[in-house]
Fold this protein.
Amino acid sequence: MNKVFFSWRHFSCSPRHTPLSLLLTGVLLLTLLVGPALSQTEVQDLAVVINALTHPDLGITASLSLIDLMEPNENRAVDNEIIRIGIEPLNRRRAVGLFTHGHLAYIPTFNLPITGAASSGDNILIINLEDREIVGEIPIQAGATPQQIALIDDTKMYVTCAAAHEVHVVDIPNRNVTKILTGSFNKPSGITLLNGKAYVSNPAWEWDPVEGKTIYYDSTVTVIDTETDIVLKSIPVPTNASGIVNDGDSTVIVKTTGNYNDILGHLVLIDAGSDEVIETVKLKLTPGSFALNAQKQLFIQGSWQKPGLLIYDVAAQDWIRDEDDSIANFSNDADAPIGGSLSFAPDGNLYIVTPDWSGGGQDFVRVMDVVDASLLQTYRVGPGGSILAFAQIIRRREDVNNDGFVNAADLVVASRFLGDVGPGLVADVNGDEVVNVLDLVLIGQGL
């Protein structure tokens, strides 16, 4: 058996005297020679829930709850209202979107006055899910009402802004808006990314205070080249396009809800290669939330008139369960409501978030096994629990820059501290109170 011995000596050369590329190359070669990883990794899988109710009379503000998906006890798994998104209920602070990346959560928020005036305090709130604290914000222009977020890469995101009829381009490291896309949007709401393009849904509605009703205009999906930020096309779709997702391959799926009266909803399938509509499916109801699983099965929440779950096979362009054959109840608990917003977990189970907008405390996240429609878990969350996303928290000392990921950026940061000695060093991965090549090797093993 061949053995490789290393003599770890204090690294005395300053990084400024060593080309960074040669240093990192050497670290990667050492990583290949040193056997299994020496460090330990602790992983926590979470469901992140926005409790969106703001009720001045009851003193309720929007908040965040976390569900530990690795905790079998349903009561102990939930930490409710750990972060208050709004401090003063009278401000009526809204949290309408949620995007997770590593251990960070990005939440579009704004204050919406009762008078119907423009929003204020518009921003993207940044929350560290591991430390459970607000760590910053990205300011958005007042009155824009940010809605949804799409992460283009680690440094750039798009934000749909409904009231401003714009999409804002954000520099994530500098936490500021660098560009505003205009001219092709009408109340932009949903957004999804596929094959280097962003697809934005435009519900195109407007409240008419004189008539006392909502006016609906021609709804579209706007296509943006995410490299150049150039609008490529606007695709006409039926009335009130809202939710938008993609199958990770070649198809964008749009849900339209109609006018909640005589115009009902549709599903629209768009080919992401040609950006042409390939199928429009008429629904016999006004659809609620929807979510797509890995098998390209679209689960659609029915309306209050026709409750239950519908299932549409996107690949086959055919119904598995239509309006006349919806899943009305959990197979093992018919008394648990099946209504609410939908999200698929990485394990394939369907999470159904049911809010109690009265503030009565009957807000639940229910987990469905879609194979047999059985109820697996029930979690009680905070007031107005209605928006859910998943996050995996990886507690690793190798994550030197604390962004939730171990990558080349951590090597670059750690290399700046080579030769430092003492307790509590940022880049002292192995905890021996000195930053040397061994720490870089440990980071390299985590790449």
Q: What stands out?
A: Confidence is low (pLDDT under 50) at residues 1-17. The CA atoms of residues 122 and 150 lie 17 Å apart. Residues 405-447 form a domain with the Type 1 dockerin domain fold (CATH 1.10.1330.10).
